[in-house]
Design brief:
- The protein is an alpha/beta fold.
- It is built from 28 helices and 15 strands.
- The strands form 5 sheets. The chain has a 5-stranded mixed beta sheet with strand order 11-14-15-13-12, with helices on both faces.
Length: about 650
């Protein structure tokens, strides 16, 4: 475990009223349950040396607890040692993410030109690797309207207006600090000398917000604390904000002006900082963009946006949320402050963005498409952070659809029409809240029925032939035990996955040579079309989804269609002969998919496996090193078996 994972584990167990299960702990840390147990065992001696133990029993009602044997040692480890270890991990230059973060800070901290060769030498990396890192840096700055200006013989420096500079710096610092909902700032060892200043600013914000009955989340308090901290530093450096008169007049009319003036007055008294009218507007801007909206504040314009979102989702993904009042209100309340952020060119930081994109990529796809309604209306491009918040709301709504999804069942009975009708009546009477459609047939008619229309089959006679949906054997007559067993069968439909692997050897390609991303996708789709009949717009849909946001995660690409296309589930695996550049990163393993909603509902292990290979580079190395179908399936099989232990 990394020091950050240990911090998350300690805080989560300590703040939970109940012991945390093995599965919950592994989910929090983003690692398999078996890996969690193994790593926890290896850390036992480290924890004991630092005055505490994490112990627990597995099984229903049990879980892990923290037992503190030496409080002084424990708090020293938790509050000082672990944060410093985390800082060392963040500053390690072996990771591209850390090098990119360091380069961003170097450019933000300098007003002068910097020679790129000197930066490459400082990072101790090759010129080619440095150029890849620099491309990531440019893309980061581009999100905030900042350009990297180059001048021959001098080097490069950033060109940005003051607001863009402050927002970019805040985002960088928040990525380093992390989030702690209880303490606001997560043990900011990065600001040892300014700990007290940060805590004072945070307290001023909280006290003033209470005084004016202004609702803020812990995350927005942390964000605002850093913005004000940076504002004070920049004012002292003679770097004030410059806000145009039209926007300034608009901001001065906002309801948050009295609160902003109160905060500015207290900061002025404490730090001797004179906030001019533009700096006051800067505070108003952030307060207005972070205010928690209330249900009664949702106006007709916002409701029209939500309607547009729902229409797009229904058309593309076949999810119908038009009558979901809870989702409508939740999205409306989130959209109100978002529209403020759009007008002020601000972004709401989302610390769980990457995790949401990886774990809930179906919900993220839905949000990505739904947010087109906002982007087209206001001629803007929403950032990943903002879309990820919408994805969380859609994830909950999709889960609720699954939970309330009534089943279509087929009853197979060879005892005659009367028995079939009696079974049908008993099913309707006993399970009306779980069933949408009930059809009957005899055994000999089964071969001519399209079973894709049903979730499962209940049969009074043995059915030896294998089908793609669950087949349950039942008695001809209902009694209490029969009703209970059928109820369990219905509840287990969504939990049961096919024993067959979701991968097909016919759609496994290990001989593709391609020059770029589009070439890869074209070749894979062409290969698939030789085995299956694809819709005419299949490739176009995949490319459309890629154009919205590339689907690369580390060394793996997971391209897919932009919504539900066709009636067939398609999972194709391609191990490329040589890596190709895929959105500024090399990829050699590609898993292209197109699936119906029933596949999503019944194949949790498949999606868990995708998440695992994203996180575990050793699995990708294994697959690429031995690019055979049997080895790939063996990797999947081992993953499934590990999860079942």
């Amino acid at each position: 475990m990394t020091s950050e994972q240990i911090l998350i584990l300690i805080d989560s167990i300590q703040n939970s009223q109940m012991p945390l299960s093995k599965d919950k702990c592994s989910e929090l840390l983003g690692i398999p349950a078996a890996t969690f147990q193994k790593q926890l065992g290896s850390l036992r001696s480290v924890f004991e040396e630092n005055g505490f133990r994490i112990e627990g029993k597995t099984g229903y009602g049990n879980g892990y607890r923290i037992y503190v044997d030496d409080a002084a040692k424990y708090y020293e480890y938790r509050d000082n040692i672990l944060p410093k270890l985390r800082l060392a991990e963040i500053e390690s230059l072996t990771s591209q993410k850390n090098r990119v973060r360091k380069l961003i800070k170097i450019f933000l901290d300098s007003d002068d030109y910097i020679k790129l060769d000197d930066l490459a030498d400082e990072l101790m990396i090759s010129k080619s690797q440095f150029n890849k890192d620099l491309l990531e840096v440019k893309q980061f700055f581009q999100k905030y309207g900042i350009t990297l200006e180059s001048k021959p013989h001098y080097g490069s420096k950033i060109v940005a207006d003051e607001i863009a500079y402050r927002v970019a710096l805040t985002k960088t610092l928040m990525n380093e600090i992390g989030v702690d909902e209880e303490n606001g700032l997560l043990r900011p060892v990065f600001f040892e000398e300014e700990k007290d200043m940060l805590e004072d600013i945070r307290k001023i914000i909280i006290d003033c917000a209470k005084e004016y009955d202004f609702a803020l989340t812990d995350l927005t308090i942390q964000n605002l604390t850093l913005h004000l901290y940076i504002a004070i530093k920049r004012i002292n450096m003679g770097r004030p904000v410059d806000i145009d008169k039209i926007l300034m007049e608009k901001l001065l009319e906002e309801n948050e002006r009295p609160l902003a003036a109160r905060i500015a007055h207290i900061l002025n008294s404490k730090y001797g900082i004179s906030f001019n009218v533009e700096e006051l507007c800067y505070i108003i801007m952030h307060l207005s963009a972070k205010k928690i909206a209330k249900e009664e504040s949702i106006d007709d314009e916002v409701m029209e946006i939500i309607d547009d979102m729902f229409h797009r989702v229904k058309e593309r993904f076949n999810y119908d949320f038009m009558n979901n009042l809870d989702l409508r209100i939740t999205l409306g309340m989130h959209t109100i402050p978002l529209l403020k952020r759009i007008s002020f060119h601000l972004v709401s930081y989302n610390p769980l963005k990457e995790e949401i994109q990886q774990k809930y990529f179906r919900a993220y796809d839905v949000a990505l498409w739904a947010c087109k309604a906002i982007e087209e209306k206001f001629d803007c491009e929403l950032k990943d952070d903002e879309i990820s918040y919408y994805a969380l709301h859609f994830k909950m709504a999709i889960d609720n659809l699954k939970a309330s999804d009534k089943k279509n069942i087929l009853i197979v009975c060879s005892s005659g029409r009367a028995t079939s009708q009696m079974l049908r009546i008993n099913f309707e009477k006993s399970f009306s809240n779980q069933l949408n459609r009930i059809d009957t047939c005899n055994f000999f008619e089964l071969a001519n029925i399209n079973l894709k229309e049903y979730d499962c089959v209940f049969s009074t006679v043995p059915i030896k032939e294998k089908y793609d949906i669950p087949i349950f054997k039942i008695k001809s007559f209902f009694d209490v035990s029969n009703i209970n067993s059928i109820s369990n069968m219905l509840n287990d439909i969504d939990k049961n996955e096919k024993e067959d692997y979701p991968f097909s050897e016919k759609l496994f390609f290990n001989d593709i040579c391609a020059v770029d991303r589009q070439d890869v996708l074209e070749q894979i789709c062409q290969r698939i079309s030789k085995e299956k009949k694809l819709p005419d717009n299949f490739l176009q849909s995949v490319l459309e989804r890629e154009s919205m946001q590339a689907t690369r995660f580390e060394y793996v690409a997971l391209p897919h269609t932009n919504g539900v296309i066709g009636d067939e589930n398609i999972i194709a695996v391609a191990i490329l002969k040589k890596p190709v550049d895929w959105n500024d990163g090399l990829v050699q393993l590609v898993i292209l998919s197109s699936y119906r909603d029933d596949f999503i509902k019944n194949n949790d292990k498949f999606f868990s496996f995708l998440l695992e290979i994203i996180k575990q580079s050793k699995i990708v190395k294994n697959i690429v090193g031995n690019p055979t179908y049997s080895n790939f399936i063996e990797c999947y099989k081992k993953f499934v078996e590990k999860g079942e232990k």
